[in-house]
Amino acid sequence: MGVIRLESVSKRYGPNRWVLTGVSLEVPAAESVAITGTNGAGKSTLLRILAGLSRPTRGTVSGRPPVVGYVPDRFPPGDRLSATEYLTHLGRVRGLRGATARVRATELLDRLELAGGARAPIRGLSKGNAQKVALAQALMIAPQLLVLDEPWSGLDAAAHGVLGEIISEVVDAGGSVVFTDHRESVIGAHAAHRYTIQAGRVTAVAGGGTIPRELVGWPVDADRTASRQQPADGPPGGQDGTALPSACVVLFAPRRARPREVDWSGLPGVVDLTPVAGGVRIRVTAHACDALLLRALRAGWSVAEVRRDAAGCEARDGGAACSR
Ligand SMILES: Nc1ncnc2c1ncn2[C@@H]1O[C@H](COP(=O)(O)OP(=O)(O)OP(=O)(O)O)[C@@H](O)[C@H]1O
After folding, report:
1. Bridge partners of 49?
2. Of 187, 215, 243, which marks where a domain is finished?
3. Which domain CATH number covers 118?
4. Which residues form the ABC transporter domain (predicted)?
5. Ligand 1, atom 25: nearest CA belongs to which residue?
6. Is there an atom of ligand 1 within 6 Å of 191 CB?
7. Is pLDDT above 90 for 161?
8. What average pLDDT does this structure show over 87-111?
9. Does residue 16 have its Cβ closer than 6 Å to ligand 1?
10. If DSSP codes are grouped into helix, strand and coil, which group holds residue 13?
11. Ligand 1 in reach of 43 Cβ (< 6 A)
């Protein structure tokens, strides 16, 4: 999968209402991008153009992959079909066999924990549950480009986490994700790049989300190499050559869901790791600690304890302070 490229894209509604003017934007493969802007700035318009649902008045879009998942800002729930019937139907329209589509629909609705019944008519679902169906329809066939218009809107805490995992899974599989949201914390956690729309123009926001791009995407080979060269028993060196203390992180598999496997030792800054009852204790350089935590949470792990002083945690050796 390559780069999706918007070149000099403009969009006009009606005779002279220009919403986007001369937008050039790249969405790389295996990355997530957040779009921000005030209400009415044109975010949904841009997303629809990216998804191929709306044509630009001027300019071109290239590199859009064949399988696009799209979650609109308003999902029309006024349907007599149940969530399962609706998703199965959509899956069939998209080329899945009926039985496969039904299995996929059931898996997705289970994962998102649709309350109110997968067999109840969609029009009777609450906003949050309708949003879960909206998400599920975008995922019936693994998307290579996932376009999400305020996707967290109305979701409960559990589905919030699942959506974060889904974004990571699409990115890990080499796909692209573009989403809108207004919250800094969400953008920082889920986007490697950030753009904002103002007066029809799109500009990159320096540094992407609040979490630096290299920490979200983990492509920091230099950092990785540095951590592997460090002696396991000594304090690892900082990027500027000064000694940085290591931190200790204790992660546990949550009781309800099985976390995804992570190659902890291959992550930047990891000095060593020790299995402890129900989880793993990781010693990591202090500057890589936040990124490791983010990666762990995204993969469905629970963080039991973080200590800036790794030696202190080690001394307890998985004892009371390090267990739940
Ligand atoms: N189909 C349409 N026909 C005419 N005008 C439209 C259409 N779709 C959007 N607009 C107008 O274009 C402007 C941008 O709308 P858009 O929905 O893209 O903004 P947005 O940034 O997503 O807003 P919000 O944050 O409120 O969802 C708005 O003034 C809107 O009224």
Report:
1. none
2. 215
3. 3.40.50.300
4. 4-224
5. 39
6. no
7. no
8. 93
9. no
10. strand
11. yes
Check if 19 has its Cβ closer than 6 Å to any atom of ligand 1.
Answer: yes
More confident residue, 100 or 293: 100
Query: Which residues form the domain of 286?
Result: 220-322
In the reported structure, the alpha carbon of residue 135 is separated from the centroid of ligand 1 by a whole-number distance in angstroms of 21
Note whether 205 and 124 are same-domain residues: yes
Nearest residue CA, atom 5 of ligand 1?
Answer: 13
Average pLDDT, whole number, for the chain? Answer: 80
Closest Cα to atom 27, ligand 1: which residue? Answer: 39
Tell me, yes or no, whether 183 and 311 share the same domain: no
CA dist., res. 260 & res. 253, Å (int): 9
pLDDT, tens digit (0-9, with 9 covering 90-100), for 220-245: 232 333 333 333 333 333 333 344 56
Nearest CA to ligand 1 atom 7: 13
Quick one: CA torsion of 35, 38, 39, 41, rounded to 10 degrees?
A: -70
Parallel, antiparallel or unpaired: strands 279-285 and 145-149: unpaired
**Sign of CA pseudo-dihedral 224, 230, 234, 238:** negative
* DSSP designation for 260: P
What's the predicted TM-score (pTM) here?
0.69
ipTM of the complex: 0.98
- Residue minimizing CA distance to atom 28 of ligand 1: 40
